[in-house]
Amino acid sequence: MRLALRDITKRFGSLVANDHISLTVEPGEIHCLLGENGAGKSTLMNVLYGLYQADEGDILIDDEPQHFKGPGDAMAAGIGMVHQHFMLIPVFTVAENVMLGHETTGFAGSLDLDAARRRVREISDRFGFQVDPDALVEDLPVGVQQRVEIIKALSRDAEVLVFDEPTAVLTPQETDELMAIMRQLKESGTGIVFITHKLREVREVADRITVIRRGTVVGEASPEASNAELAALMVGRPVELKVHKDPAQPGERALVVSDLTVADETGHVHIDGISFHIDAGEILAVAGVQGNGQTELTEAMVGLAPHVEGSIKLDGREIVGRSVRKALEAGIGFIPEDRQIEGLVSNFTIAENLMLNRSYDKPFVSRGSLNLKKLDTFAKEKLAEYDVRAPGVSTLAGQLSGGNQQKVVVARELSRDLRLLVAAQPTRGVDVGSIEFIHKQIVAARDSGVPVLVVSSELDEISALADRIMVLYRGRVVGIVPADTSRDTLGLMMAGESPEGSES
């Protein structure tokens, strides 16, 4: 099946999200749509999938114009979509999720779950997915949940698959597995639209690359193009892909963590008696395969973890046992790993989100009254300073692209007088231009004397930002090593091997 988009235009009021965009996807081709967050990539694919109606332009399948009134029409035409945020029911099984919306019935009108199970097994066996049709989705790792989304689309005979930022929530290992799956789908004749802003992934699997910027196609590129060439085309200016920072000038010991143990409500231990320290003006980066205690560690630092034992001392003052508000008042800035759930209130404005951690005191609140003028002035300053691309400070946070949402979180956390910055997955799902900016802000915080704890699943980011690297495996510290430690060594440590010469 050959898919073509011709002069697609989509407007939201005065904002032109897509401006006469054209592209084609041939059978058995991976066509990459590359662009910054907010460039219009997802809007274009939502038009293709019937979620939005184009104001101008045509969708053609095998040269025949299509008129999709909703996703059902797109699916019936052979188009499937794997969303960045999965469209799965956590308490349903894999088979139940796959048949949802396309239920078949058996005897006396009962749901034919056996047919759904057979379909899951058939597709899983064909592509080596190893997905159990009776497993509950909430019990599956993120990478396997994504396979369920792919199975859903293929079970409805999709001939063109759209992957919308598919690696934003995946570990490096899961990303490699997805790349292999995409190649298998390509070999089977499936056309793929791959939406991303990650240059390494583009060069690894794309057959063709279309670059869009601010809603307009600005060119096509070859997969042989360098990262620097692709980044410049995507952002519209040369982008510094490496983090430039002077050697750390550590000051006094600022953060001391001793015998820290963190458990969940069921008593399962996620952090098992770890100890480490961070000096003022130093970045300690935490590496590890996701699910080895990184989330629980960052939550313990700000009072979010339910059951914490041991000690966390910041400037000699104990943090364990304090409320989240008390932790913030102690000078901790927290960039959470999930900006949409933990970092922002999506139906609040940008201005309101910028004052979330100071909604009870000066400078924005006095004697129980909100000073709207001060908040408006502050928010406009931060929009400009942190290059948040939005119509204005009254824009709802949920209407921003992922990268701009992240900038709002970073702006809020770094606009206070900090004694410690905890940054969890600070650039997850963020384009290269925003990554460059956020990295500079983190390094600037370090250079101002703030101790920084960075947690990331991206080894390149770990190595670029860190002054020292701590590797976690099953909730324990495998070792603490210098920032120039090789990827191979870090990979072994992430599998549980302790290197020689590391800190205990």
TrEMBL record:
Molecular function GO labels: ATP binding; ATP hydrolysis activity
GO CC term, one of those recorded: plasma membrane
This protein's name: Heme ABC transporter ATP-binding protein
Keyword Ribosomal protein: no
Compartment list: Cell membrane
Domain ABC transporter, first and last residues per copy: 3-239, 255-499
One Pfam family of this chain: ABC_tran
Organism of origin: Nocardioides luteus
Topology term for the membrane: Peripheral membrane protein
Entries under CDD domains matching the protein: ABC_Carb_Monos_I, ABC_Carb_Monos_II
Superkingdom of the organism of origin: Bacteria
Keyword annotations of the record: ATP-binding, Cell membrane, Membrane, Nucleotide-binding, Repeat, Translocase, Transport
InterPro entries for the chain: AAA+_ATPase, ABC_carbohydrate_import_ATPase, ABC_transporter-like_ATP-bd, ABC_transporter-like_CS, P-loop_NTPase
